[in-house]
């Protein structure tokens, strides 16, 4: 086909192409193909079939009137309009056949998926078996090596002992010979006896004038000490005394003296000393240096080489300390924890060994926001909690236990908003069964997927409740297809997840949901030790102005009684009172029962585990030890690294900081707000939460906000009288909220206000240079055609050649038909003289733009 014929066909299809070199897009190709098929008659027969609807819905409305007697004597009858609506749907047979084929292909895919899963499980079992055999072989080899090493050490020890005994026997045999040889060495020859007697008869010289090693001193001392005192040295052996007493060797050799000194002196070790350094969770640099017997500067130097900026008194974590110990040639071992925490764990483990009894299941309701979680739970409990919540959304975990015809069930209602991720994760970890609520008209949403991930991470079975089935636009098949993509396969499709259609408004399917929960609980065989000391987890905590710290706890084992001493995270206390979810006071709570506890020393963190201890002393010791560990961990987290310091250099002058003081009614809301607000930070603005806590805004909070120039956020709390005085005196900005959406929006606006404005350049027009003329007044004048937008005289311009900026300046003259004009619009010709620039050529582009000031946002 020639290019001209193709251009003609494109023109007939309604597309304008003027040159064979132009590029045809994919959309234009499809359009051309459709045109050709319609022109040549292909596909015409199939169009009516494709255009025909797959199903037809017929709606019929019939209006009639009936007469109703009022019941009063003498009164006229009333006429009532009755409207009857009917709806019938007809589906094509081809659609039913397609759905049957799709079901068959889906079953085939599920079968293949199951076969692949079984194959993977078999391979995993084979790998585990091989790993077990390998570990057994390694253990046998290590045992044989250890046995051989012990045998060699025992043999070497026996040989050394035998050598030592032989040396002692030889030394004992030499000593009598040396003692017997000493008198013989002093016997005088017979021919010198006269000279000796004559010498004795001479007057004796002064004792002080005798030489230290003369024969006179040896003669006088030899009989008294029998060779023990020779030359004034007492440390010599019998062999040395015999050698020294002879006349031929008056002084011992220097080498012999050094050998004797070495026997009693200190010798420098030749091999390096490798020490075992016991390290806990954290340790200071000075203590680590002391355990390795090195100077603190050596440890600081090793840390600096690893990229950690630390002083000698700074605390480092276990992993960093272990790396330093290995770097300096020693061996790091984990220190045994012998504190009160270890004793508490041992007692808790002993108390958990008891007779286990069946317990109620703990069910967590999870799902996306506004999918009807609280409404469904309200119908089960026959209450109206959702109507009383701010914005109609749940913002903290609610714990309830309900007595149903199927038995007692404990429900945990979690928030669905994106900011409450950690709260949903706590709900999944504390539960036995997760009921995933999905709206039939909305389908799978982001928090739905997140709830599935939390349940998978906690290894908890899932029951899907497809809610809002009473709406006409409900589509449960869409929900199933969306969840199958995340490995949540319904039972009717070959999976293991129960899908129960319900309606929280009408109550349809609620009994089936309770049946499903009961069946799942029976399969799991949930049991717990009912007698003994209680242990569990904190669901939520708050600070009540009249009652003090209040913690909502879920008992997981044992029985919590009034008067027990409990440790809850870093807080401790005695249970002064317990209340159930209705506000009624109770004396004890068994497994799987949530209660509110009063009497703690402070507000514990949500998610902390609690345990009952024997006395208040142990509870206080454990709480203080945990507090110390938390303080050390906080100090460790502040350790500066070189790469962090380099990254922060140069940013101090550009990044703005918005300080906040956050106070909320419950601990979970504080955590969610803090995480959500800190995530608003970027390279330009840093959102810094100076302080956060549970309870009302106090005077100390206001004083801290005034010192740090912070914005005070009150979430379901208010400032007291003393705090209001400080707020008014310092002109602080206090904002109260009850919905988390509003908090995030307001803080985002406040942070955007710190950014100020920025200047942006917006292109308003482009002119194409067609010809260049010379003018005596302006120099080079470009004859242009405005191809885009509008060119204005008093706006700055750029000159582009081959899409590259070669000049930036302003216009000197803008004319049309020799008349000076203020602007020239698209499609019109004009003459442009560029100020202080004459190198304009045909083909250049003159770009006209304006600078506008806009507010920066996050």
Quick overview:
This protein is of the alpha+beta class and 858 residues long. The strands form ten sheets. The protein has a six-stranded mixed sheet, with helices on both faces. The protein has a six-stranded antiparallel barrel with strand order 16-17-23-20-19-24. A six-stranded antiparallel barrel has the order 30-31-36-33-32-37.
Nearest-angstrom radius of gyration?
Answer: 47 Å
Q: What's the number of extended β-strand segments?
A: 37
Strand order of the largest sheet: 10-11-9-12-13-14
Biggest sheet statistics: 6 strands, mixed
Reported by name, the CATH topology of the domain at 358-527 is: Rossmann fold
* Beta-strand residue percentage: 25-35%
- Average pLDDT across residues? 78
Q: Number of helix segments? A: 23
CATH superfamily of the domain at 358-527: P-loop containing nucleotide triphosphate hydrolases
What is the straight-line distance between the termini? 56 Å
What is the 3D form? extended
What would your notes on this structure say?
The protein is of the alpha+beta class and 858 residues long. Among the domains are: 3-51, no CATH class; 276-329, Arc Repressor Mutant, subunit A, CATH 1.10.10; 358-527, P-loop containing nucleotide triphosphate hydrolases (Rossmann fold, 3-Layer(aba) Sandwich), CATH 3.40.50; 535-636, Elongation Factor Tu (Ef-tu), domain 3; 646-755, Rossmann fold, CATH 3.40.50.10050; 758-855, Beta Barrel (Elongation Factor Tu (Ef-tu), domain 3). Helices cover 39% and strands 28% of the residues. It contains 23 helices and 37 strands. The strands form ten sheets. It has a six-stranded mixed beta sheet, sandwiched between helices. α4 packs parallel to α7 (238-245). It is extended, with a radius of gyration of 47 Å. Residues 43-48, 182-191, 203-232, 383-397 and 416-420 have low confidence and may be disordered. Residues 358-527 form the Tr-type G domain. Residues 117-220 are annotated as: Disordered. It is found in: Cytoplasm. It comes from Mizugakiibacter sediminis. Belongs to the TRAFAC class translation factor GTPase superfamily. Classic translation factor GTPase family. IF-2 subfamily.
């Amino acid at each position: 086909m020639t290019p001209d014929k193709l251009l003609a066909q494109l023109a007939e299809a309604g597309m304008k192409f003027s040159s064979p070199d132009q590029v045809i897009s994919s959309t234009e190709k499809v359009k051309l193909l459709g045109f050709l098929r319609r022109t040549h008659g292909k596909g015409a027969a199939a169009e009516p079939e494709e255009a025909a609807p797959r199903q037809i819905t017929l709606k019929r409305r019939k209006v009639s009137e009936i007469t109703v007697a009022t019941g009063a004597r003498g009164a006229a009858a009333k006429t009532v309009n009755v409207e009857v609506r009917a709806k019938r749907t007809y589906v094509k047979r081809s659609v039913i056949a397609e759905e049957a084929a799709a079901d068959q292909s889906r079953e085939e895919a599920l079968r293949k998926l199951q076969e692949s899963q079984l194959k993977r499980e078999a391979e995993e079992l084979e790998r585990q078996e091989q790993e077990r055999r390998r570990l057994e072989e390694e253990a046998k080899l290590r045992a044989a090596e250890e046995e051989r090493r012990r045998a060699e050490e025992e043999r070497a020890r026996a040989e050394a002992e035998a050598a030592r005994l032989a040396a002692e026997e030889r030394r004992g045999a030499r000593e009598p010979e040396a003692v017997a040889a000493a008198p013989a060495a002093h016997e005088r020859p017979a021919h010198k006896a006269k000279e000796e007697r004559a010498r004795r008869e001479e007057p004796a010289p002064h004792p002080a004038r005798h030489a230290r090693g003369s024969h006179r001193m040896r003669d006088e001392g030899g009989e008294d000490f029998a060779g023990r005192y020779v030359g004034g040295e007492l440390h010599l052996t019998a062999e040395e005394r015999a050698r020294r007493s002879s006349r031929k060797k008056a002084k011992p050799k220097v080498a012999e003296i050094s050998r004797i000194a070495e026997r009693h002196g200190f010798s420098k070790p030749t091999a390096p000393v490798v020490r075992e350094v016991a390290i806990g969770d954290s340790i200071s640099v000075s203590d680590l240096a002391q355990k390795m017997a090195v100077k603190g500067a050596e440890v600081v130097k090793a840390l600096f080489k690893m990229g950690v900026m630390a002083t000698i008194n700074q605390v480092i974590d276990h992993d960093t300390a272990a790396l330093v110990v290995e770097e300096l040639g020693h061996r790091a071992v984990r220190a045994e924890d012998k504190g009160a925490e270890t004793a508490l764990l041992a007692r808790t483990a002993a108390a958990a060994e008891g007779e286990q009894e069946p317990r109620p299941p703990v069910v967590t309701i999870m799902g996306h926001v506004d999918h009807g979680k609280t409404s469904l739970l309200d119908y089960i409990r026959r209450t109206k909690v959702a109507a009383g919540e701010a914005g109609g959304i749940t913002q903290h975990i609610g714990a309830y236990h309900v007595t149903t015809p199927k038995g007692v069930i404990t429900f945990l209602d979690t928030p669905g908003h994106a900011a409450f991720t950690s709260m949903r994760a706590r709900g999944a970890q504390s539960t036995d069964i997760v009921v995933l609520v999905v709206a039939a008209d909305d389908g799978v949403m982001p928090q739905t997927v997140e709830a599935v991930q939390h349940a998978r991470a906690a290894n908890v079975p899932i029951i899907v409740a497809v809610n809002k089935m009473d709406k006409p636009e409900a589509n449960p098949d869409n929900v199933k297809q969306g969840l199958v993509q995340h490995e949540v396969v319904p039972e009717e499709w070959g999976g293991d997840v129960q899908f129960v259609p319900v309606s929280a408004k009408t109550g349809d399917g609620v009994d089936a949901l309770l049946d499903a929960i009961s069946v799942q609980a029976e399969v799991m065989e949930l049991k717990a030790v009912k007698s003994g000391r209680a242990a569990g987890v904190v669901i939520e905590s708050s600070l009540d102005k009249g009652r003090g710290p209040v913690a909502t706890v879920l008992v997981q084992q044992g029985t919590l009684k009034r008067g027990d001493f409990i440790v809850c995270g870093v807080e401790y206390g005695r249970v002064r009172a317990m209340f159930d979810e209705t506000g009624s006071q109770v004396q004890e709570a068994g497994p799987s029962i949530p209660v509110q506890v009063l009497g703690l020393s402070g507000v514990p963190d949500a998610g902390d585990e609690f345990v009952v201890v024997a006395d208040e002393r142990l509870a206080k010791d454990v709480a203080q030890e945990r507090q110390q560990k938390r303080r050390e961990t906080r100090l460790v987290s502040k350790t500066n690294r070189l790469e962090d310091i380099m990254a922060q250099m140069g940013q101090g002058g550009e990044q703005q900081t918005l300080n906040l003081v956050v106070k909320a009614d419950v601990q979970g809301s504080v955590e969610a707000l803090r995480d959500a607000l800190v995530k608003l930070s970027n390279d330009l603005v840093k959102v810094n939460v100076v302080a956060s806590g549970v309870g009302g805004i106090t005077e100390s909070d206001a004083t801290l906000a005034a010192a740090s120039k912070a914005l005070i956020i009150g979430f379901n709390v208010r400032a007291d009288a003393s705090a209001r005085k400080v707020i008014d005196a310092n002109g602080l900005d206090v904002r109260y909220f009850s919905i988390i959406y509003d908090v995030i929006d307001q803080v985002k606006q406040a942070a955007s206000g710190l950014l100020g404005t920025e200047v942006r350049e917006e292109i308003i027009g482009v002119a194409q240079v067609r010809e260049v003329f010379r003018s005596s007044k302006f120099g080079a004048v470009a004859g242009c055609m405005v191809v885009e937008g509008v060119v204005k005289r008093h706006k700055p311009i750029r000159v582009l050649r081959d899409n590259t900026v070669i000049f930036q300046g302003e216009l000197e003259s803008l004319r049309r038909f020799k008349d000076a004009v203020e602007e020239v619009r698209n499609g019109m010709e004009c003459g442009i003289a560029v100020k202080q620039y004459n190198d304009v050529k045909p083909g250049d582009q003159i770009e006209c733009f304006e600078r506008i000031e806009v507010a920066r946002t996050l």
